[in-house]
Amino acid sequence: MEEKLRKYINRKFLLYPKTKEIIEVRDELYSIMIDKYNDCFKLGVTQEEAYKRATEMMIDYKDAIREVEKGSSLGAFKKILINIDSFTTFYFITLTCIYFFVSVIILKSFKKTWLITVGGSFIYLTYFSISLYKYAKLFNFKTLGRWGLAFIYISLIPLVYVFPSLYLSIVHSKNIWSHSWLVVIIIVFFYIITDYIVNRKHISIVERDILIFVSGFLLTTFLYLFISMKFSIWSIAWILYVFYLSLISMIFYIGRNKRRDQKERC
Q1: Mean pLDDT confidence for 37-62
Q2: How far is the CA of 115 from the CAs of 88, 108, 172, in angstroms?
């Protein structure tokens, strides 16, 4: 029954921010509910009735919870906004100073230094994406958190793929666009792996299998394209897909048998 009460209290606090104040109120309320349940049960009350009376303690503490929630939520939200605003101001002032210093003092030309502002903007986009993800995680918004994680990896595309390719093209006259786009496949691959690791407790078996299959397929595709471009063996490198399909089929077969054995033991 204690586990049932724990699930009940966790469900009630699901959308509350994971701040120190909220966690303290949640744990304190859980202890009070346990004591209430044990007291009722010792008096000969049935388990169902004792559970009902214990959960009714939420009503008595609703006002206190609401006040803590309000202060904690607004405080957390305000703190994040202040941090973002302060960093944004400092960051772009610093970036502007660097831009003018390099253009006027070092290179004495504004011809190619616009790349500094472009690269700096890409870096800030990644920072902003991480801040949004932290905010979503603070309030335990699972769907928003997953979108925030996706946005972080999307922001890495201009930073890791676009800017280096643009820099080499403008400054060194090296055109690597036809090959550097492979980085996008790797970014998507790592996003899927990260999403699986972070949210594995909240995804279904079917979704897990899909993520595993897609991540493996992306990795195989990267290897196929990289090897084919490097050694010009397009007509042979496709054999990698055969190996991958054989491997993933074996993995799914073993996993399915393990789940079936576990069900039979239960």
Answers
A1: 78
A2: 19, 15, 13
